[in-house]
C-alpha cells in the first residue's frame, strides 16, 4: 500500500483537552492523558473538516474566560 493510500484509509479520532483545543489522534492508539474523545472517528480529511467546523475560536478556554472577566469589570 502506498503512503497516499495509507493516509486515505487510516482512521483518526478527534480529541479535545480541558482548554477546548482539538487534536487528531490515530484511532488505534490509546488516548493520551489530558485529552478526551469527542466521538468522531473517521478519515484524516473528515476529522480535519469536523475540527474546522467546530473549533471556531482558537483561543484557549482560560484566555477566553480571563477576557470575559476583564470586559465585565
What does this structure look like?
The chain has helices at residues 3-9, 44-54, 61-72, and strands spanning 11-17, 22-26, 35-43. With 73 residues, the protein is an alpha+beta fold. The protein has a single domain, classed as Rubredoxin-like. The chain has a three-stranded antiparallel sheet with strand order 2-1-3. A hairpin with a 4-residue loop joins strand 1 and strand 2 (22-26). The model has no long low-confidence stretch (mean pLDDT 90).
How is the secondary structure organized here?
Layout (H helix, E strand, L loop, with lengths): L2 H7 L1 E7 L4 E5 L8 E9 H11 L6 H12 L1
Antiparallel strand pairs: 1-2, 1-3
Structure summary:
The chain is an alpha+beta fold and 73 residues long. It has three helices and three strands; from the N terminus they run αβββαα.
What descriptive keywords fit this protein?
single chain; 73 residues; alpha+beta; Rubredoxin-like; 3-stranded antiparallel sheet; 3 helices; 29% strand; elongated
Beta-strand share of residues: 25-35%
* Contiguous runs where pLDDT drops below 50 for at least 5 residues: none
CATH third-level topology: Rubredoxin-like
Q: Tally the helices: what do you get?
A: 3
* Distance between the ends: 59 Å
Largest sheet: 3 strands, antiparallel
Structural class by sheet pairing and helices: alpha+beta
Count the strands?
Answer: 3
CATH architecture: Alpha-Beta Complex
**Name of the top-level CATH class:** Alpha Beta
Query: Strands across the major sheet, in which order?
Result: 2-1-3
Q: What order do the helices and strands follow?
A: HEEEHH
Instruction: Give the number of domains.
Output: 1
Look at the structure and name the CATH superfamily.
Structural Genomics, Unknown Function 30-nov-00 1gh9 Mol_id
Shape descriptor reads: elongated
Q: For the CA atoms, what is the radius of gyration? A: 15 Å
Helix fraction? Answer: 40-55%
Amino acid at each position: 500500500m502506498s503512503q497516499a493510500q495509507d493516509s486515505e484509509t487510516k482512521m483518526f479520532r478527534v480529541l479535545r483537552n480541558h482548554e477546548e483545543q482539538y487534536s487528531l489522534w490515530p484511532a488505534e492508539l490509546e488516548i493520551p492523558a489530558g485529552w478526551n474523545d469527542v466521538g468522531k472517528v473517521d478519515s484524516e480529511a473528515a476529522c480535519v473538516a469536523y475540527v474546522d467546523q467546530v473549533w471556531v475560536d482558537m483561543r484557549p478556554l482560560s484566555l477566553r474566560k480571563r477576557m470575559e472577566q476583564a470586559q465585565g469589570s
